[in-house]
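go over this record:
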Amino acid sequence: MASISEEPAGFRVHLSRWEVLGGLRREFVIPAASIISDEHVDDGWHQLHGWRCPGTGLPGVIMLGTMRYKGTKDYCAVYGRRPARVISCRDFEFARVLISDPK
């Protein structure tokens, strides 16, 4: 399952082998200067917006990859209706990064 670790340079998003394959994306670093907010939500699925492209998804079960909407895009590794971490960004490839909590 995806996880996030804090580093001096920012947040590193770690992905499992299956998440790399399903989301068509390797792990990446969100620079500290790009982070606007970091919040925890009760239902990560409720935070999803737009269309999945590219990635893998099964409604209500799993969403891996890029979600595109209104000229922006999010990276998602969301599993069901679990709690998730939502990191909002500026001047970065993704407007938000949504990762289900591993707990």
About this structure: The first strand starts at residue 3 and ends at 7. The chain has one domain: 3-100. The helical segments are 17-23. The two ends are 10 Å apart (CA to CA).
